[in-house]
Amino acid sequence: MTLKGKLIDDVVLFEKLAIEELHNRSFYGRPKGDTLEVSITESAYLIYMGKIIVEYKGTDLDFKDFFLKASSLLKNFELYYIVYKDLRERGYYIQPAVTGFRVYPRGGHPGKTPAEFFIYVTSERIPLLLSAIITHLGTVENLKKRLVLAIVDEDSDLTYYEVKKTVPSGTYKLDSEKKLSTASLLEDRVMVWDPEASAALQKQGFFGKPMDEGHLQLSLIESCYLLKNGVLEIEDRDKLKLDFADFSTIASKIESNFMVKYAVYENLRNNGLVPKTGFKFGTHFRVYKKIEDLAKLPHSDYLIHAIEQDHIFSLQQLSRAVRLANSVRKDMIYGAVDSHVQFFVVGRMRL
What we know:
This protein is α+β, with helices and mostly antiparallel strands. Helices cover 32% and strands 33% of the residues. It has ten helices and 24 strands. It has helices at 17-26, 40-48, 63-73, 77-89, 130-142, 195-205, 220-228, 244-254, 258-270, 315-327; strands at residues 3-8, 11-14, 30-32, 35-39, 52-56, 59-61, 94-97, 100-103, 117-123, 128-129, 146-152, 158-166, 181-185, 189-192, 209-212, 215-219, 232-235, 241-242, 274-277, 285-288, 302-308, 312-313, 331-337, 341-348. The longest helix has 13 residues, at 77-89.
């Protein structure tokens, strides 16, 4: 039986018979008294499947005409349709929601089980605001759901990414009971001259890298952390002692986003993790949960990139970062810095 509905505003209205035929059997639309309201995305799919006819101002619309009309009613309608059709054909029951769609777990459906995912629909060409992600994460967390990005590329292929908050932690603890030595700030790194202090920092704290026997090079960010925690004193070339404010000002002139990176580094170290440069992976840090012996250095556990709260993601860059992290069996995590640091892990999802 082909049911007929009318396009009114941005929904298609059906009479009572459609509630049994479309909603009760296949969970399309939402009953409203003796009528059924079906979204334009659902309606386009039902027209494509030959299950309904839609009338608009006395004229029956074919798939093309309906699609064109729907695209004038909903911005990026074609993206929503591509995602909706894909998920329906994968066997999921799916309903419109603020972020895009609510998706029910396999074997579940509206009225039987709660939705499992909230789908945020976007295109590879549309910049993605971190603030939007934080807002949607807050919504889905309150509802105890999972947030999934559905990204449509220029070939209309789909990639799904799950985004969730995380709190990385490890087992390392910094011994800051006494100062070990005085170090020197050079161009963009710090040198520890004392052999005993060099050995202690590297073997006990996994800081720096030996330049040669007895001399240890520290990165700016490691040095800043050790200075703030009272483990090292740092001087410039003229032997002028630098405090945390002095050092961080100099470091910020060398690297404009130094304090953003530092906030993430400090959080990681304080939570028992060992961050080292992630340059070879195109990120700020590669991070270890546990290091017992530098001679038997394990693989790092995370790749972490520091960003500000007003960050705007390029989805091409996000895709590259996640793919690289997956290829080396690590989690791709972003540390967002505001008054505090929040961590978000982004990973490919196979639905």
